C-alpha cells in the first residue's frame, strides 16, 4: 500500500480493494473497505474505486440502508458482466447474440431455452 502521501496507480488500488474484499469473507460497506485498507484513503476514493469495479463486473453489490455492501463477483458474475458489455457496445445486438448462440454446444441449448422461459415468466 502507498503511504506517506504517495499516490497509488488506479490498477494498484483496484487490486488492493479486491484483496480487502476477498480477505473480509463477507460483503463490506465502503467504510469497512476503507478501514481494511488504512484510513489515509478518502472515503470518496474507496467509493469511486468500488463503483468502477462494479461497472467492470468485478464486484457485486446490494443495497444496505443508504449504502451498498460489496463483494468479489464470482466467475459467473464476471462472465455475465462481460457478455452484457459486449451487447451494450455493439450496434448489432442480433449479430452478437447469433454468434453466441451459434457457438453453444448441443448440451447447452436446452439449458438456454429453459433459462429464457424462466426469464419470460418473471417478466
UniProtKB/TrEMBL annotation:
The answer to whether UniProt assigns keyword Transcription to this entry is yes
Q: Which GO terms label this protein's molecular function in UniProt?
A: DNA binding
From what superkingdom does this record's organism come? Answer: Bacteria
Q: Which InterPro entries match?
A: BlaI_family, WH-like_DNA-bd_sf, WH_DNA-bd_sf
Checking Pfam families in the record gives: Penicillinase_R (PF03965)
Q: Which residues form the signal peptide?
A: none
Which keywords does the record carry?
A: DNA-binding, Transcription, Transcription regulation
Q: Does the keyword Nucleus apply?
A: no
Q: Name one GO biological process term.
A: negative regulation of DNA-templated transcription
What the record says about family reads: Belongs to the BlaI transcriptional regulatory family.
Q: In its UniProt entry, what is this protein called?
A: BlaI/MecI/CopY family transcriptional regulator
- Whose protein is this, by species? Quadrisphaera setariae
Amino acid at each position: 500500500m502507498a503511504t506517506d502521501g504517495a499516490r497509488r496507480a488506479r490498477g494498484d488500488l483496484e487490486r488492493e480493494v479486491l484483496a480487502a474484499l476477498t480477505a473480509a469473507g463477507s460483503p463490506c460497506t465502503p467504510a469497512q473497505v476503507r478501514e481494511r485498507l488504512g484510513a489515509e484513503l478518502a472515503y470518496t476514493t474507496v467509493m469511486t474505486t468500488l463503483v468502477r469495479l462494479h461497472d467492470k463486473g468485478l464486484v457485486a453489490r446490494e443495497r444496505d440502508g443508504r449504502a451498498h455492501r460489496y463483494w468479489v463477483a464470482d466467475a459467473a458474475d464476471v462472465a455475465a458482466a462481460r457478455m452484457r458489455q459486449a451487447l451494450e457496445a455493439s450496434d448489432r445486438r442480433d449479430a452478437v447474440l447469433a454468434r453466441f448462440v451459434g457457438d453453444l454446444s448441443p448440451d447447452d441449448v436446452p439449458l438456454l431455452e429453459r433459462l429464457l422461459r424462466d426469464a419470460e415468466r418473471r417478466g
